[in-house]
Amino acid sequence: MPVAGTTALDVVDQLALPRGARLLVNGIGGGVGLALAQLARAGGLEVVGTAGGAKRDVVAGTGATFVDHRTPGVVDRLRGFAPDGFDGVVDLVGGASLRAVAPLAAAPRAVVSVGDPTVGEVGGVGVARRTDRRTLERVAALMVQGVLDPHVTAVYPFEQAARALARVEDGHATGKTVLDLSARGQ
Ligand SMILES: NC(=O)c1ccc[n+]([C@@H]2O[C@H](COP(=O)([O-])OP(=O)(O)OC[C@H]3O[C@@H](n4cnc5c(N)ncnc54)[C@H](OP(=O)(O)O)[C@@H]3O)[C@@H](O)[C@H]2O)c1
């Protein structure tokens, strides 16, 4: 959460969308995406997000509308949720996927990428990170208040650190993966 949670908070503050605005989150099922979904919903935004089919329930549980990114015609389906364009488009995937969803924004500057430094080529911007204590404390407070659930979906003992990292690095993690140092030697 020091990384995923604060990144999500940075995105929400950067977009500064009013209640009722429509937000598209491309790659909503991972660590940053689920945190962003919860913060955006708490701010009164209408959220549509793409993820793999296994993430349908966890995404819907945040109050966001789930769209399976592996189904044909996904861009047309997304356009149907905001025919005049989304007020904000946050991309957590990058590459061809970013280029496919960027035109769904009402304005190019409304595209924010968290992982792809080429976002400027589609007129968008990268997230402006604030790696400061105040942002970290805000995330901690939101978790204590129950607004932000980290969605821990796997816990590994220290001896299985390599497996834990491989799970995160495969690019299809759901929520957060925990490495439990207290379980060392058990
Ligand atoms: N700039 C920064 O400070 C900063 C901070 C944090 C993270 N990041 C970057 O932001 C990105 C996301 O981070 P994360 O922690 O959320 O990663 P993550 O936990 O690995 O989640 C990525 C999610 O995207 C989904 N996905 C993959 N391909 C997709 C596609 N074509 N369409 C829609 N969803 C797709 C994945 O699984 P499914 O395909 O199964 O849904 C997964 O749920 C990473 O590239 C990370 O390096 C940058």
Protein model, in words:
With 186 residues, the protein is of the alpha/beta class. It folds into two domains: 4-126, Rossmann fold (3-Layer(aba) Sandwich), CATH 3.40.50.720; 151-186, no CATH class. Helix content is 35%, strand content 19%. It contains seven helices and eight strands, in the order αβαβαβαβαββαβαβ. Helix 5 (95-101) links the parallel strand 4 (88-91) and strand 5 (111-113). Helix 1 (4-15) packs across helix 2 (31-42) and helix 1 (4-15) packs across helix 6. The longest helix has 12 residues, at 4-15. The chain is globular and about 55 Å long. The model has no long low-confidence stretch (mean pLDDT 95). NADP nicotinamide-adenine-dinucleotide phosphate is lined by residues 3-4, 7, 26-27, 29-33, 50-52, 55, 69, 92-93, 97, 114-115, 127, 129, 171-173.
Question: Which helices and strands occur, and which strands form pairs?
Answer:
Blueprint: H1 4-15, E1 22-26, H2 31-42, E2 46-51, H3 56-60, E3 65-68, H4 74-81, E4 88-91, H5 95-101, E5 111-113, E6 125-126, H6 133-144, E7 152-157, H7 161-169, E8 176-180
Parallel strand pairs: 1-2, 1-4, 2-3, 4-5, 5-6, 7-8
Helix pairs in contact: 1-2, 1-6
The structure holds NADP nicotinamide-adenine-dinucleotide phosphate.
The chain-level structural class is alpha/beta
Secondary-structure arrangement, i.e. CATH architecture of the largest domain:
3-Layer(aba) Sandwich
Question: Helical element count?
Answer: 7
Biggest sheet strand order reads 3-2-1-4-5-6
Average predicted confidence as pLDDT: 95
What fraction of the residues are assigned to beta strands by DSSP? Answer: 15-25%
**CATH fold topology of the largest domain:** Rossmann fold
Q: Please mark out the parts with pLDDT under 50 across 5 or more consecutive residues, or reply none.
A: none
- For the CA atoms, what is the radius of gyration? 16 Å
Look at the structure and give the CATH class of the largest domain.
Alpha Beta
CATH superfamily of the largest domain: NAD(P)-binding Rossmann-like Domain
- Percent in helix: 25-40%
The biggest sheet, with number of strands, parallel, antiparallel or mixed sense and barrel status, is: 6 strands, parallel
Distance between the termini: 26 Å
Overall domain count: 2
Series of secondary-structure elements, N-terminal to C-terminal: HEHEHEHEHEEHEHE
